Amino acid sequence: MSDESDELELELDEEVDPGVIHKQATTPTSSRNPYSRLEVNRLIELIEEKETIIENKRTDFNTQNKKNAAWIKLTAEYNSCVDVQKRTQKQLQKKWDNLKSTAKKDVS
After folding, report:
1. Hey, where are the domains in the chain?
2. Residues near 6 by Cβ (< 8 Å), separated by ≥ 6?
């Protein structure tokens, strides 16, 4: 008898209130969306067009505003392509930083 009651308790414990939204049920198993080769190439093409602004070493207010405006425009252009997954400005900037870092490691 105790085995049956243990099974019943386990079944009752596993029940979920349907009105409660569980984080695990709403988030995908993997939040990583790796960039395809096409996406990386597209990002590089767009950055090459704005490289003088984006890679400017100056950090004054005007330069930072120009960089931010360039990244906003670049993000809009990137996301307007049909064959790329939509990315945020922050994601594209991080990918660009990672690409540069990888390239530096490969050279040394």
Report:
1. 2-107
2. none
Helix axes 61-80, 89-107, angle to 10 degrees: 100
Token look-up 């490969």 returns 106
φ and ψ at residue 32, rounded to 5 degrees:
-75, 130
Whether the model clears a pTM of 0.85, i.e. scores above it, the answer is no
Which residue carries 């969306």 as its tokens? 33
Round the CA-based radius of gyration of the chain to a whole number and report it: 24
**Long-range contacts of range 50-55, CB-CB < 8 Å, 24 or more positions apart?**
50/74, 54/96
3-state SS assignment for residue 84: coil
Give the pLDDT confidence score for residue 26 in this predicted structure. 39
d(CA 39, CA 18): 39
Counting every residue written for the chain, the total comes to 108
